[in-house]
Amino acid sequence: MQKPALKPANPCFSSGPCPKRPGWQPAVLGDALVGRSHRSKPGKARLNAAIDATRQVLGVPDDYLVGIVPGSDTGAVEMALWNLLGPRGVDVLAWESFGSEWVTDVLDVLAIDDARKLVAPYGELPDLGQVDFTRDVVFVWNGTTSGVKLPDGEWIPAGRAGLTVCDATSAAFAMPLPWDKLDVTTFSWQKVLGGEAAHGVIILSPRAVARLESFVPPRPLPKLFRLTKKGKVDRSIFDGATINTPSMLCVEDYLDALRWASDLGGLEALCQRSNQNLAVLEAWVAKTPWVDFLAAQPAQRSNTSICLKIVADWFLALDDDAQAELTKKMSSLLEKEGAAFDINGYRSAPPGLRIWGGATVEAQDLAALLPWLEWAYATIAADHAA
User: What was the pLDDT predicted at 1?
Assistant: First the structure.
């Protein structure tokens, strides 16, 4: 098969850090408050602006707290687990690698006495009907390494007794989130908005705040994790006074992405762009016999971290190591040609490809990628046959 003539204008399809917004240039950081303290009046104003714009674009209720915290989404999730878990039993859901990390944290590291895991293999969701909402519940909204998302929040009761802790890092800004069903929500702005890494966002409902102010964790909390001061929520964290020093360059970049999102039409427009990107791949998969989605159910397919598997008989006859080597070769071929960067599947996921389809990706770039995927597959298939 001949190499295609047309390449994506932007071949960056990494699932994190993700592509910058269309038209992004380093010049947009020209007004960054470099060399100034983040605790100065203008520094705090920038951080407050980022918090306010996050609330506006995502539609976060006025009585929820929004804070910028260290350690990306991982830091935000860990902060929630260490501060909040203990007074009730805990159910932890996992269907991919990051959910599995939270299982390890809850059951092994924090060693919560009454904790259980509800686990499903890659490509599927656990039985949501088995979740007990008299307990605290920890879950990801979108499986970044499996391409499997929660289709909605209908499985979460409004009258739950426990808290819900949602890792929404590859869902926020691309999927509608039911705020009335979520007590703690975390994400990193390096995902759907293509911001720079290392910073996380944590969003707390009034129920989560009440837990923080009524429960003293039976464990020492590192300074970076502390959300309370003298028995009350430290409101300064949610007013732009971060726990440690943030990068004001990264904050400026996030502000630029938020302005782009707002000008585009807000959350609805962002979701629409991601859905259009998924539709490009769905149409291609439907007519391509050697490939399928890792997600077993169409309603559970992620529109951001789109995970594909090779289903050709010759490929499935190989062992996992051989399959992984061939998908790595496909990814390397595409990278060498400048057609796609960083699309090999996650290291602990089944062998396959993972293509980012978040809102900063242009549908026409995905369309231009498809012939290259076919060329790369034909290349490895021919090499194997030889």
Answer: 83
The structural domains of the chain, ordered by start, are: 35-262 (3.40.640.10), 266-385 (3.90.1150.10)
pTM: 0.97
In the 3-class helix/strand/coil scheme, how is the chain assigned residue by residue?
A: CCCCCCCCCCCECCCCCCCCCCCCCHHHHCCCCCCCCCCCHHHHHHHHHHHHHHHHHHCCCCCCEEEEEECHHHHHHHHHHHHHCCCCCEEEEECCHHHHHHHHHHHHHCCCCCEEEEECCCCCCCCHHHCCCCCEEEEECEECCCCEECCCCCCCCCCCCCCEEEECCCCCCCCCCCHHHCCEEEEECCCCCCCCCCEEEEEECHHHHHHHCCCCCCCCCCHHHCCEECCEECHHHHHCCCCCCCCHHHHHHHHHHHHHHHHHCCHHHHHHHHHHHHHHHHHHHHCCCCEEECCCCHHHECCCEEEEEECCHHHHCCCHHHHHHHHHHHHHHHHHCCCCECCECCCCCCCCEEEECCCCCCHHHHHHHHHHHHHHHHHHHHHHHC
pLDDT in tens, 71-125: 999 999 999 999 999 999 999 999 999 999 999 999 999 999 999 999 999 999 9
Tens-place pLDDT, residues 130-158? 999 999 999 999 999 999 999 999 999 99
List, for residues 156-197, the tens digit of each pLDDT value: 999 999 999 999 999 999 999 999 999 999 999 999 999 998
